[in-house]
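INTERNAL AUDIT FORM
Audit reference: QA-55
Scope: verify that the stored structure record matches its stored sequence.
Auditor: D.O.
Record contents follow.
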Amino acid sequence: MYEFIMDKRNYDNVTYRNKRSASRGIAFKNDKIILIKSDKYGEYKFPGGGINPNETKEMALIREFKEETGIDVIVESIKEFAVFKEIRKSAIYDEIFEHTSYYYLVDVKDEIGDTNLDDYEKEYGYNLVFVTLDEAINNNQKILDNNDITMCPWVEREVIILKKLKEIYDGVRS
């Protein structure tokens, strides 16, 4: 399993620490990765989200993947891929945001049902997309290069994971 830590160290004189954990799914169909894309900012994001109290990481993964894509994860296929811890000053509140994302490789069923998006996901206009790794990396890298991540700081994290997947994928093909 891969481990990443990204500490922005941009939180001088901030004392309150908000810790959050999330599970995210990595799935492919026909050589394309399954992601969600925002109409508002244009970034690609792995399906997933917060782990509720009394919920395992895997339960959160299954629930969040279905809510955001309308696609069911095949439970027996779940495999740990990476843990990504990011520490930064919150873009909205006067706090240190410490976020741990657990990424899982998963297989999914073919049927696409209805989504059940949170209010912020509706506001951002998230939609299910199937894209190549290169498309996702290039798109999100462009957003990063333009310093356009104030309202979607997760783009940097997602680029790192996408590039790791590409490195592995290219290594397997050669």
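Auditor finding: record pair retrieved intact. The longest strand covers residues 79-89.
Action required: none
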